[in-house]
Amino acid sequence: MGPTDRRSVWGDTLRRFPASRYTVAIVATALAVALRMVLNPVLGDGRVIYTTLFATLLVVGWYAGLGPALVSLALGAVAAIFFILPPEFSWAVATPFNIAGLFVYLIFGAACAAFGHTMQQARRQAEANAQLARDRQQQLEEEAAERRCILESLRESNERLQQVLDELQATYDQSPIGMLQLDTNLRYVRVNQTMAAMNGIPEAEHKGKTVYEVVPDLAANIERAFRKVIKTGKPVLNVEISGETIADPGVRRTWIESWFPLRDTSGKVIGLNVVAQDITARKRAEEELLRLNETLEERVVERTAALAQSEEQLRRVASVLTMAEQEERRRISQVLHDDLQQQLYAIQLKLDSARRDAEAGDMAMGLAGVAEAEQWLIEGIETTRRLTVDLSPPILKSEGLAHMLGWLVSQMKEMHDLDVALVADRPYRIQDEDMRVFLFQIVRELLFNVVKHAGAKHATITLREADARLVISVADDGRGFDVSQAARAAEAGGFGLFSVRERLGLFGGRMAIESAPGEGARVTVRVPMRLDEPLEATGAATKRVPVSKHEPLL
Question: I need a surface site. Which of 57, 193, 291, 335 has the fewest CB within 10 A?
Answer without folding.
Answer: 291
